[in-house]
Amino acid sequence: MSDHFYSVEQVAEHLGLHVRTIRNYVRDGRLPAVRIGKQYRIAHEDLEAFTGRPVPSGTGETAEGPRHSEVSSIVEIDAVGADMAHRLTTLLMSAAAHRRPGDARLRIETAYDKERARMKVIVLGGLGDTARLLDYMEGVLAS
């Protein structure tokens, strides 16, 4: 028997429903829950009984598969010339295009303001991939 409880928000996210819908299920008695203070908590077993399927408990996986995480980064670089901006853009686009099979997609946007000698890089991707990309950038800028 598991002592794991879920909040209404966690159940709503897991089932892909609105929080209000889950609260209505609880209030109607369709989904058993315990009220603790002003919040409802749903037992692991009750959620499994409600859905008719096993629910992973804190393993980092959901019923849909492994947990997904993504980072959004905005990097502003001052005092950068047009050649360096082009070099950085080429490096970043190449790194994003040449990925191993199964790797999450990296999305990269670059903008260069010639008058201010300023470059902006926007990176959306997985935690590790983004960290590696930022390391590449640091290496290029340090040279």
Task: Please provide a written account of the structure.
The protein is of the alpha+beta class. It has two domains: 5-65, Arc Repressor Mutant, subunit A, CATH 1.10.10; 71-142, TATA-Binding Protein (2-Layer Sandwich), CATH 3.30.310. It is 41% helix and 27% strand. The protein is built from five helices and eight strands; from the N terminus they run βααββαβββαββα. It has helices at 8-15, 19-28, 44-51, 82-97, 127-142; strands at 5-7, 34-36, 39-43, 61-62, 65-66, 71-78, 107-113, 118-125. It has a three-stranded antiparallel β-sheet with strand order 1-3-2. β7 (107-113) and β8 form a beta hairpin. The longest helix is centred in the middle third of the chain and has 16 residues, at 82-97. The protein is elongated. Mean pLDDT is 85; it is low at 59-63.
Overall shape: elongated
Structural class: alpha+beta
CATH topology of the largest domain: TATA-Binding Protein
Cα gyration radius (Å): 23 Å
Q: Mean pLDDT, rounded to whole units?
A: 85
CATH architecture of the largest domain: 2-Layer Sandwich
Strand order of the largest sheet: 1-3-2
Summarize the biggest pleated sheet.
3 strands, antiparallel
- In the predicted model, the low-confidence regions spanning at least 5 consecutive residues are 59-63
- DSSP E strands, number: 8
**Distance between the amino and carboxyl termini:** 58 Å
